[in-house]
Amino acid sequence: MQEIDSFNIRVYGLFINDKQEILLADEKRFGIRMTKFPGGGLQPGEGTVECLLREAKEEFGQEIEVIRHFYTTDFFQKALFHENQQLISIYYFARFIEPEKFRLSSNPFDFDKQGGEIVSFRYKKMEAIPEEELSFPIDKKVLRLLKQSV
Predict the structure, then answer these.
(1) Nearest 5 degrees, angle CA 124-CA 136-CA 112?
(2) What residue numbers bound the domain in which 117 lies?
(3) Structural domain contains residue 81
(4) 124 Cβ partners below 8 Å, 6+ apart?
(5) Three-class DSSP category at 59
(6) What CATH code is carried by the domain that includes residue 133?
(7) Shortest CA distance to 22 belongs to which of 145, 136, 116, 113?
(8) Radius of gyration over alpha carbons of the chain, in Å?
(9) How many domains does the chain divide into?
(10) Do residues 106 and 67 touch, judged by C-beta distance below 8 A?
(11) What is the largest CA-CA distance in the chain?
(12) Residue 71: alpha-carbon gap to chain centroid
């Protein structure tokens, strides 16, 4: 086992609509299907809010407003895809400035076969999401915290 020698910092948005549904991202990366909250990796020279704004523009093709910080990882988590990195995830409540213009689905992993899309988005009632549906330990903790706070 290699030693941890760097950090992998990820920033995620928690988008909750007026029906108390939260936005989930279903992705296929490295040949693995995963369900997570939308967001991505912090780039050098970028602030965490800047990162989320950029990720939203890339993933959704539209701008968002970051409302407030919700949670930052408070336990050790080894990065899944990088052998020698510790994962730190930061979550913000956010909202869409305009109605969603990107493709939404009601089915998990409903990728657009025509466009070669490897990500799909869907809203789901928070109370209807079992922890096992989320792929990563930090997301599972965030889901528990969200359910406790509503």
Answers:
(1) 55
(2) 6-149
(3) yes
(4) 21, 22, 24
(5) helix
(6) 3.90.79.10
(7) 145
(8) 15
(9) 1
(10) no
(11) 47
(12) 12
User: Does any domain span residue 96?
Assistant: yes
What is the pLDDT tens value at each position of the chain, 150 positions in all? 468 889 999 999 999 999 999 999 999 887 889 999 999 999 999 999 999 999 999 999 999 999 999 999 999 988 877 788 999 999 999 999 999 999 999 998 988 765 555 899 999 999 999 999 999 999 999 999 999 986
Whether residue 25 contacts residue 37, with contact meaning beta carbons closer than 8 Å, is answered with: yes
Query: Is 107 strand, coil or helix?
Result: coil
Q: For 61-73, give the DSSP string.
A: SS-EEEEEEEEE-
Distant-in-sequence, close-in-space partners of 132: CB < 8 Å, separation ≥ 6: none
Q: Which two tokens stand for residue 107?
A: 């089915």
Smallest CA-to-CA distance from 13 within 62, 58, 61, 68 is with 68
